[in-house]
Amino acid sequence: MQQQNLFGNAALPVPRPNESRKPAARVSHTCFFALRPGPENAARIHEFAGKLLMSCGISGSRITPERLHITLELVGHDANETVVDAACRAADAVRVSAFKAQFDTAGSFLAPNGPFVLVGTEGMDRVRVLRTSLGCAVADQGFAPSRAYQPHMTLCYDQRHRVAFAPIASIGFHVSEFALIKSHIGQSRHEVLRTWQLAS
What we know:
Blueprint: H1 2-6, E1 29-35, H2 39-56, E2 61-62, E3 70-77, H3 81-92, E4 99-108, E5 115-119, H4 125-140, E6 153-157, E7 166-175, E8 177-184, E9 189-197
Antiparallel strand pairs: 1-3, 1-8, 2-6, 4-5, 4-7, 5-6, 8-9
Helix pairs in contact: 3-4
């Protein structure tokens, strides 16, 4: 019965080698642009995720509330100051209004580490608009933005249990800014390098 409550019915370009998008043998950090729920929303989503994961039989490694995010664009692995500065110049050029990101579906991606994620249909449209704007801006700075993009929020990694995508009770958060994040590999720690406010 618990599952029924959760699942609903409904400057000059800065050259960057292509290999910079692929993790090296010993990567210390990865930089990427992302959307992050504020502390209250992160706690609410984390609590919701706990019930959802239990109902689905997922029991792997959970993402802590402070690391919940929607990735917008990868900047690079072990990105140096020049690359980070170019990424910041790109973000400075983005002009998008604030919006609400809404998830309505959950399930497991096919990646080997078994990510269990939240995704959305129309509720992710504005995320895609922001990502397109950011992608154009980083391309102007010499980056090669990813072609394929599926906005999602990873809740957990479970290699043993995979769940088909299915509708869930809608959950989301208000997006008023995006951030450049430095993820310290192996430390489960995200460092926010800078944030950009969206228009009200």
